Structures are given as structure tokens and as C-alpha cells.
């Protein structure tokens, strides 16, 4: 039987994490009688007096938000990391290693409007978010105990988001997180061998193939990576090789905002719902070491599989063996690519 990439099970290699994933595209045809999620309730008011992130409201710790009119950044009231200096000397067996971790957690409100998301913000508003990310990366990364700055957003209750107000987080810490460390090793090994960026070489090949491209502009590409794990996972990559947000030109900042708006609109249009995801930027560590191997990119990991109420579960084989997906990356890229570029809410108004 001749191999069919959209029908037959196969494994694909993820060069960023040095891992394999099992692809089983024929399983997408199986009937679903499992759990159905409740789609997020659409926010109808621009200001919610009970929201602790809205402008002018009092947060759970008793502090009052200013009457902000753009982005607002503050230290997380319930941080996972602390700035305390801890003296520690481990006398445990190597099988029981402990290492104190120092860091800072911040929250970024993208807009004072409670009832919108990135998909419903205009390009200039998203540019302002990018400018804030850039400032925070520079400020936090300049601290001598911060070696990595992770910028991310959890959107939707199914992704564990505790507040629907449009916002993201920054976790800045003294160690490289595990996924970043894996990526660091892969990028560095490729750069030392080829003297080129792994992701720059990768997107050049993707732009030739055109099979997994969702959208592109002059400076950025959004695609479903060849090794994608989640059903509608995408990767946003700069065409030019540079390591962090600090390398963005004015035109590239605008292009990045356009790309973020473009993919989030397509996500919402897929099932005509406020599409949940976890998204985050991977960029060079802030450890005062040159990192020519790093290439700015952003991951979008959405959980939805078949509809607004059916999600992908990482269980069983995925937890015990390796990641597995039911729909081919080529098929999910085609579905996203063919969606309208105008948000469904605006289309329905007309």
C-alpha cells in the first residue's frame, strides 16, 4: 500500500525540542461521545464593576487600578515566583535535587475594554501591546538575577484563565525553563553546525512548499509547523533572523501586530467562538551572553479539535508514550488558511 500522509499513521520529528510526535490522521473520523466543553460566555460590557482587572476597580489585594487607557502592567498579586534572596545548601542525595528559584511575575492588561480580545483589537492597539512586551522584556531582563523572560497569554476558561478581561502574563526567572532549555540546545547545536538559524532555514523551506502556511506578510510567517502537536497549533516566525523583541524595527512591530491579529481572527472564525489558546513568545535568554542562535518566534497552542465544545486531551499514550495528533498539520493549515480575514462578529453585523 502506498503511503498517504493524510491517511496513514506516521511519526514526525520536532527539531526545536528534539522530540518525535505520532500522527494518526485516520482517527479524525472516529465518532465522539466524550466530554463537551462549554464555550466561553461572550463579554457584553466594556467595563465590569466586578472585574479586578478593569480600569479604576479594586483588585483582590485591596490595591486600586488606575484609570488606564491603553496597556496596564502590575506585579501579580499571587506570584508563582518571589524576589527574596534565599540561602540554601543541598545535602540531599542527587536523586532528590532542589534548587531555589528567584523571579518576578507580572500581569499585562492589553486594553481597558473588558469585552474584547486580541482578535478584536485593531493593529495599533496590538502594536501597543507589543511595545509593552518589549519594554518589560528589557526592564526585567536587565536585572542581574533574571536570565529568562517568558511572555505568554492564556485565553479562555478551558485554558485555566481565571479572568476574561484581555490580559497576559510575564514570568521572569533566574533559570531557563525546561522547554526553553530544550529549544536553546537545539537552536545552538544547529547554529554551531550550519552557522545559520534553524528557524530561518525552516521557514524558507516552508515558504517554498506552501503546504502549511496560514498567512504571511513582508516580515512574518504564521504556519502550522510540520511537527505540530495540538490540532490547530501555529507558529509565528520572523522572516529576518534576530533573537528578541528588542530587534524589531518599526515596520516589523507593525507587521507582527498584523500577524497576531490575522491568526487570532482566523481562530475565532474557525468555530465562530472566542477561540481559547495558550500562546507565548520564545526569544533569547537575558543572561548577558550572546545568543546568535536564537530566532524570535511565538507559539499558539489551542485545545479545540472538532468544534467549539470538543477539545483535544493529552492523556493515555500522550502521557506515557509521546505526543499524538489526529488531524494532519497540512489539513489544519488548509482549514485555517481558507477562513475569512474579517472577524465573524463584524461579518454577522453586516
Q: Keyphrases for this structure?
A:
350 residues; alpha+beta; nine-stranded antiparallel sheet; three-stranded mixed sheet; 7 helices; 19% strand; globular
Shape: globular
How many H/I helical runs?
7
Strand percentage: 15-25%
Report on the biggest sheet.
9 strands, antiparallel
Helix content range: 25-40%
Q: How are strands sequenced across the largest beta sheet?
A: 3-4-6-5-10-11-9-8-7
The SSE order reads: EEEEHEEHHEEEHEEEEHEHH
Low-pLDDT parts are none
Give the total of beta strands.
14
User: Averaged pLDDT, please?
Assistant: 92
Q: How much is the radius of gyration in Å?
A: 21 Å
Kindly, what is the distance between the CA atoms of the first and last residues, rounded to a whole number of angstroms? 50 Å
Structural class: alpha+beta
Task: Describe how the helices and strands are arranged.
Layout: E1 10-14, E2 19-23, E3 72-75, E4 103-109, H1 123-141, E5 148-155, E6 167-173, H2 178-194, H3 198-209, E7 213-216, E8 220-223, E9 234-238, H4 250-271, E10 277-282, E11 297-301, E12 304-307, E13 310-311, H5 317-320, E14 324-325, H6 329-337, H7 344-349
Parallel strand pairs: 2-14
Antiparallel strand pairs: 1-2, 3-4, 4-6, 5-6, 5-10, 7-8, 8-9, 9-11, 10-11, 12-13
Helix pairs in contact: 1-4
Question: What does this protein structure show overall?
Answer:
Helix 1 (123-141) crosses helix 4 (250-271). This protein is 25% helix and 19% strand. It is globular and about 65 Å long. The strands form 3 sheets. The protein has a 9-stranded antiparallel β-sheet, with helices on both faces. The chain has helices at 123-141, 178-194, 198-209, 250-271, 317-320, 329-337, 344-349; strands at 10-14, 19-23, 72-75, 103-109, 148-155, 167-173, 213-216, 220-223, 234-238, 277-282, 297-301, 304-307, 310-311, 324-325. It is α+β, with helices and mostly antiparallel strands and 350 residues long. The longest helix is centred in the last third of the chain and has 22 residues, at 250-271. It contains 7 helices and 14 strands.
Amino acid at each position: 500500500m502506498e503511503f498517504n500522509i493524510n491517511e496513514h499513521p506516521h511519526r514526525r520529528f520536532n527539531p526545536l525540542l528534539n522530540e518525535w510526535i505520532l500522527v494518526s490522521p485516520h482517527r479524525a473520523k472516529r465518532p465522539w461521545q466524550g466530554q463537551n466543553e462549554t464555550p466561553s460566555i461572550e463579554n457584553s460590557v466594556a467595563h465590569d464593576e466586578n472585574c479586578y482587572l478593569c480600569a479604576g476597580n479594586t483588585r483582590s489585594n485591596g490595591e486600586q487600578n488606575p484609570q488606564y487607557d491603553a496597556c496596564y502592567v502590575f506585579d501579580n498579586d499571587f506570584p508563582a515566583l518571589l524576589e527574596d534572596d534565599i540561602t540554601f545548601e543541598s545535602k540531599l542525595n542527587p536523586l532528590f535535587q532542589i534548587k531555589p528559584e528567584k523571579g518576578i511575575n507580572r500581569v499585562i492588561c492589553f486594553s481597558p475594554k473588558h469585552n474584547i480580545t486580541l482578535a478584536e483589537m485593531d493593529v495599533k492597539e496590538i502594536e501597543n501591546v507589543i511595545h509593552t512586551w518589549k519594554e518589560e522584556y528589557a526592564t526585567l531582563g536587565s536585572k542581574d538575577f533574571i536570565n529568562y523572560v517568558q511572555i505568554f497569554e492564556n485565553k479562555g476558561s478551558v485554558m485555566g484563565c481565571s479572568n476574561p478581561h484581555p490580559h497576559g502574563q510575564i514570568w521572569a526567572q533566574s533559570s531557563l525553563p525546561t522547554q526553553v532549555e530544550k529549544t536553546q540546545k537545539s537552536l545552538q547545536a544547529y547554529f554551531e553546525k550550519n552557522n545559520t538559524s534553524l528557524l530561518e532555514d525552516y521557514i524558507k523551506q516552508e515558504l517554498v512548499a506552501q503546504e502549511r502556511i496560514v498567512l504571511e506578510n513582508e516580515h512574518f510567517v504564521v504556519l502550522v509547523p510540520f511537527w505540530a502537536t495540538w490540532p490547530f497549533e501555529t507558529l509565528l516566525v520572523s522572516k529576518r533572523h534576530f533573537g528578541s523583541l528588542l530587534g524589531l524595527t518599526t515596520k516589523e512591530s507593525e507587521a507582527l501586530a498584523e500577524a497576531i491579529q490575522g491568526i487570532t481572527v482566523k481562530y475565532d472564525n474557525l468555530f465562530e467562538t472566542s477561540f481559547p489558546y495558550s500562546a507565548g513568545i520564545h526569544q533569547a535568554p537575558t543572561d548577558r551572553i550572546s545568543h546568535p542562535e536564537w530566532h524570535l518566534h511565538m507559539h499558539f497552542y489551542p485545545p479545540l479539535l472538532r468544534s467549539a465544545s470538543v477539545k483535544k486531551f493529552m492523556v493515555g499514550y500522550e502521557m506515557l508514550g509521546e505526543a499524538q495528533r489526529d488531524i494532519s498539520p497540512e489539513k489544519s493549515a488548509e482549514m485555517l488558511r481558507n477562513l475569512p480575514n474579517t472577524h465573524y462578529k463584524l461579518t454577522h453585523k453586516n
